[in-house]
Write a structure and sequence with these properties.
Order of helices and strands: EHEEEE
Helix content: under 10%
Radius of gyration: 17 Å
Structural class: mainly beta
Strand order of the largest sheet: 4-3-2-1-5
Number of domains: 1
Number of helices: 1
Largest sheet: 5 strands, antiparallel
Strand content: over 45%
Distance between the termini: 5 Å
């Protein structure tokens, strides 16, 4: 379930799972280090664009007499996007 937007040509509200580097600044023993995995956080927002290099989303916008202003923007390498889900 998402909100509908009728400005420009933006896609439906999307949920995106992506891979992210995990850093840990504390000392780890061998078993703990071997168990480390990539994080798979989830971001939600309107799909602004997607091409072979990047996926751009935004979660907020404002429209006034000067045009549209985007907020809460994120740009991800397409190769790191694990799944892109279009929500109804």
């Amino acid at each position: 379930m998402g909100i509908s937007i009728s400005i420009m040509s933006y896609k439906k509200y999307t949920k995106k799972d992506f891979l992210q580097i995990v850093e840990n600044d504390r000392d780890l023993n061998l078993k703990e280090f071997e168990k480390m995995k990539l994080a798979t956080p989830v971001s939600e927002g309107w799909l602004f664009s997607k091409d072979k290099e990047t996926v751009k989303i935004f979660a907020g916008y404002d429209v006034d007499e000067d045009g549209i202003t985007f907020s809460e923007r994120s740009v991800f390498p397409t190769s790191c996007v694990k799944k892109l889900t279009y929500l109804d």
